């Protein structure tokens, strides 16, 4: 069912929230009449933060206007007349609103569609079929929304009590004024004759006694009202603090954890709009309660009555200020993290968002955000509230940005689009630590006022740890540091402490997440693949996965110490495989054509029982980022020298397999053309503009089974060293125009 059809079935609070997504910025009528068209457009293909994609947004805006105008023209009859005028008006309105800022239209529609989908999903989970269970997330969301409703009722209850108190106090003051008037009349009797004075004084004294008795009783009543109200407020604030803890310490922290895992290839964090809606409800409720406390304080100052209320109000004031301070400082977050491997002299971006900025009207005086890079030690001092004098560990260009309010989405954010790290100042390293293990962080800070300059907040937030590099060759080791930190850090840690060793299954989970993300596939690492990696990591030959479950791997084993007999670490080997696959062989992995994680002995065992000329593809043990072909021939198994990225830039894997006539079946028994033919290069084409397109074929050097003179040290067979050198020369030769190749002579 289309999303809009489902959205129209929402009820109650969900329907109200859906309707609130629309307004002058995007009328609900446009959503209704263009529902199918809107849902079919590639909104997700446009990044509203990237100004270079404005032309895409402009094209979508123009198409939307045309679609509205077309729909308006097709309206006929009496009923269609008004709709025709209305749709034409909306077309003009949207063009006027977004013509100069089409990216805002994309932002608005993405926001609407995302929230509609979320509301529909929540409703489907809640109203699951009879006997069905509500999933944990929806149950949690229900509980949060139910608590907000309870807080609303409690706040309304104290509001009603506050009005009663105010009314009672006003009546008390009137009666008190009456007692003063009676006393003034008694005082004025001194000028009257004695007989008349005694008669009138007796009456006034009686009236004064009655009023004073009432005032005494009413003063005690008012004192009790104040005490009861303050205690009610105390309960409301306790519930409010508990709800805030759930949202900030559970939900927001979980969102940040998902954001960190997304840096390792985990699913995108999502859900920030839901968090903002909750935080805005918190801000609303906190502010209402704060205003109520202020009003009670005003009433007590207006009519001081000795009692314990003053002390209780002072505590309430401290509590509510603490609650709002926690909300403000916790909701200043990094929506889009800077790159965690940060190269100097290279442009990078980041986005900071203030979740309650719109609700607290901070955008009325837009604050400026500053970004500086600090070391791990400086970050530790900052978390401990030690004075760091805001020293930085480097220079960032374009590091100031004013927060912008997007009315369509209600978000207040600062988009740093063109930052660049000009210089980095490194600290003294510990022991065997290398520069690619040194962690920094980008500190974002700002200052703003809330409540008409009543409260001033200085807010700070730290990015995920970043590793600074100056050359691309450091990227591999820097990525290892980032992956380990993202995978194994604990919430609330001291920056940026991570365990030095982890259980092997934990590391497997991190490696699998990263690998699937790089392959852009659901085909991750199988149990057999992970056993192969364990054998490599621990120099163990066991094929039983259970033997590795309790083993631990240290950081040194992961990326400091070389594998036995090799010149590279475990991570460097694994990362080399990912890089090769990502750049050249991703499609073949996703097709299941590459086994990859198979050692030489396993390949031999697998191929010996297969027909001649059956082959498989496995990753090289001896070379980073290498893949080799193993095949069976006359009851023997042969291995080609590994191919690397350098080789595949000249000729693809599929073409190389096509060229090798002695390869017939991909393990276990698939004809190679069935698997690889769709990746073969098209046949040689005719010359164009005097050029002949170069064509290079891969051939294998003849060999003798009885000779091992062409074996590499690991027993891999070199079939193309000279062939590759010749291929490169031929390729360069064929790139020349025909008339230049033979000194101007053509044959």
TrEMBL record:
InterPro entries: p53-like_TF_DNA-bd_sf, SH2, SH2_dom_sf, STAT, STAT5_CC, STAT_linker, STAT_N_sf, STAT_TF_alpha. One of its GO terms (biological process) is cell surface receptor signaling pathway. Residues 589-683 form the SH2 domain. Keywords: Activator, Cytoplasm, DNA-binding, Nucleus, Phosphoprotein, SH2 domain, Transcription, Transcription regulation. PROSITE patterns: SH2. PANTHER family: SIGNAL TRANSDUCER AND ACTIVATOR OF TRANSCRIPTION. Belongs to the transcription factor STAT family. This is Signal transducer and activator of transcription. It comes from Denticeps clupeoides. The gene is LOC114795251.
